[in-house]
Amino acid sequence: MNLVSEAKAHGGTQGVYSMHSAACGTEMTFAVYMPPQAANGPCPVLWYLSGLTCTHQNVMDKGEYRKRAAELGLIIVCPDTSPRGDMVPDDVTNWKFGKGAGFYLDATEAPWNENYRMQTHILAELPAVIEQHFAADLSRQGIFGHSMGGHGALTFALKHPDRFKSCSAFAPIVQPSTADWSVGAFERYLGKDEESWRRHDATRLIEDGARFDAFLVDQGTADSFLDDGLRPWLLEAACAAADIDLTLRMQEGYDHSYNFISTFMDDHLDWHAERL
Amino acid sequence: MNLVSEAKAHGGTQGVYSMHSAACGTEMTFAVYMPPQAANGPCPVLWYLSGLTCTHQNVMDKGEYRKRAAELGLIIVCPDTSPRGDMVPDDVTNWKFGKGAGFYLDATEAPWNENYRMQTHILAELPAVIEQHFAADLSRQGIFGHSMGGHGALTFALKHPDRFKSCSAFAPIVQPSTADWSVGAFERYLGKDEESWRRHDATRLIEDGARFDAFLVDQGTADSFLDDGLRPWLLEAACAAADIDLTLRMQEGYDHSYNFISTFMDDHLDWHAERL
Fold first, then answer.
1. What family is this (chains A, B) (predicted)?
2. Ordered structural domains, chain A, with CATH
3. Distance (Å) of CA B60 to CA A64, A229, B32, B46, B137
């Protein structure tokens, strides 16, 4: 692990680090906020997965999570959203595919399957590095995210309900296998067999039997992606049919930006802390 | 006034606007956060002046001021730090002079005196626009800032103690007329007559008789600019000699970044709210 930067913030330490990712075949950057309580022993880990076009930095700059995380004693880990580097194939004309748009899955189609393996990076590689280098209690992990990262959080929680004790999302893509802005990426990363897409789609995972105890989802009513890309009612229907406890809050007047996320950040941190 | 963007945040509205500045001879951008209380009547106005290299955006992204401002009912206005545009003269090799480094004064030396008139922009032009377009109570104004913007806040408060009821600063440049990173700018903006520099220097203003009721200043001990650029002990001495109530807090381990500012933002907002 390499140090990029560290600074004291809200009594803890906001760090940025990088590691060589065997899964992605490239150096990967990530942010870790260590609360002051970590000086006295391991703290629970809350993973934040970011949305399309983002890096680890957007939420670090604009998420406003440090104050409450310091009060609650939560470690916040913020991975990147895709592999990076000149050697990584990309589609530079498309912000919904390639760099900045890894969709938290392991691609199976060439040439993307060489580097676009964000699921293995986040579920296997990064936890090992976090466990080795930080005072982290990995028996207490939660996960949340925004938009594409909400999709990542929901699907990872549904795939690993024993690992993650809590899950929430801001304006998640709940059914990426049919949403305008993600179906193209699914086809290129995973191929044309739509059966394989179901394993990376929150609503399909639930239909196919995956379960999780409870989700908190906030969604702004002024979000320009609401009707075509996000469609939280699909998650609502899937959870109702599967008897999953979903708290879906439609937030009047809020858009898709970090102005929305930061407004409800404390609520989400409280949600996770209660379960960790 | 032109709308650049608006978004709901913490129950209020974070907006970015621009206006034609006669003082600066260019379009000037500024940010305004309107708390939810403004829907019921005019609210007090707190001005935030940013540091070297910044625009209105740095504190808007990283300052973490909206939650508490919404609780306290404070309007937060964040001007830019210099004139902008291709027609504005600059020294692109120097981050401590020219664009991003207006030092909150009206330049008197050519060619800088054509555009670098940030004092008039912030003290005369912007308040008129704020009064016209927002539910602002200009009988209740406070001012704070960071680094070069701390210099701006302290000097504006000392020059206008009847206008500003409260003043605070994060890691301010307290004696810019002698600090390494500002003396060059003072000479180019104001000419070689150092007497004129005293009117834009907090410690010199105090020595020359200016007074203000009370200041709150936070300063990180791990700030790499502490010894050469900031030197809060000079303000401490000036305030002591003038019987000005200075609360100077040395904050262990904090640097010069927004990690420091955001940590103590709530304390400063509380300080201002008590006095507004």
1. Belongs to the esterase D family.
2. 2-275 (3.40.50.1820)
3. 11, 28, 9, 14, 22
